[in-house]
Input
Amino acid sequence: MPQSPSLPPGTTQRTLAIIMGGGAGTRLFPLTKDRSKPAVPLGGKYRIVDIPISNCLNSGLRSIYLLTQFNSMSLHRHIQASYKFDHFSRSFVDILAAQQTPEGSQWYQGTADAVRQNLRYFLEQPYEYFLILSGDQLYRMDFRVLLHQHIRSGAEITLATTPVRREAAADFGIMLSGPDRRITRFVEKPKEREVQDELKLDQQLLESIGSDSNEELFQASMGIYVFNRQVLIDCLASDLDDFGKHVIPKAIGERQVNVFIFKGYWEDIGTIRAFYEANLGLTDLEPQYSFFEANAPIYTHPRFLPGSKINGAILRQAIISDGCIISDAHIERSVIGVRSIIRSGSTVRNSVIMGGDYFEASAPVRSGDAPPIGIGRNCVIDRAIIDKNARIGDGVVITPEGKLENVDTENYYIRDGIVVVPKDAVIPAGFWI
Output
């Protein structure tokens, strides 16, 4: 992470970070069947929510709220076990779940509505700036750089964008701004080529971010916003429900809304395909995103597990997390999560194995014919995501080869051509998927 510019004294203490936990997480189903989207395991030993929280902590931001409303128990446990500050600081990472109040009893209707329903808590302290973040993205950003530009430019709202090429522009909200970075236009997922042509970054702005002036790039919204205190209050005084769809487009015509252009790695991992590819990308020889960053580590729950034990294996481009036991297996371009057990003769290719919440000795009592936790002997697992605590018997074959893109069954699913075995699933010996 590059050296951040100097901020006015106390700026980080006067900034509140608000992480949006998302809705029901239907795009990540079945990984969100029993947990909220921010609690989905990532990279073998982390959770998705660790990314925005760690970015905040590495940026000196110590006041963090996480908003959620679906399947929040595992998220609560993770936050309580992972982020504990001393009693003599005002630092906190707290969860605010949807609740009934005298003002209303409905679920969050969108990102803006979620903030509106909790605004009274956010205004209890004299925060001057509110940093609103998404809870399902993989990136590393120093928010002090964003705050520095926001304050220096005199913006009332600053919106982070990432440059994307034309083929990706139709999947994002696209911003148009001049060299002064003030947004003049916003178009949600523009598909017509004529409209896209009107939204391209101009040459001067391209040069200012170190890109070739002839490149064809567009500013895609990252769902990251900085609001001044009174501006946030004013924007939420309406009944608009979502920042990206409603609040920001309306504010562009009424307020000074600027862009902050982020050129680092950024990936929305809110779908099964994106989540799968982001995990496997971590195994590359030179990954676009790396957890090996000493100056900006990613924090998570300290489990105090033993080192992994490899009883003979062939490993290529594999991430092996703590507490694993692997015996005479072949593992290639795969992420192996904590407490994973992979027995002899098994092959794991292009897969994400999330591991377990416990070892067999401390597992809940299982039925007599259920295989033990982990992957049995002589299995083949290819292009799959195996969720936590799965019990896969001997001789099981799991592959999407020759199957439909999307399939639902009792103990497995196929999404975007990837087989997903859900948490606590039991796959009997000899079963073919």
Summary: The first helix runs from residue 50 to 58. The mean pLDDT is 92. The radius of gyration is 23 Å.
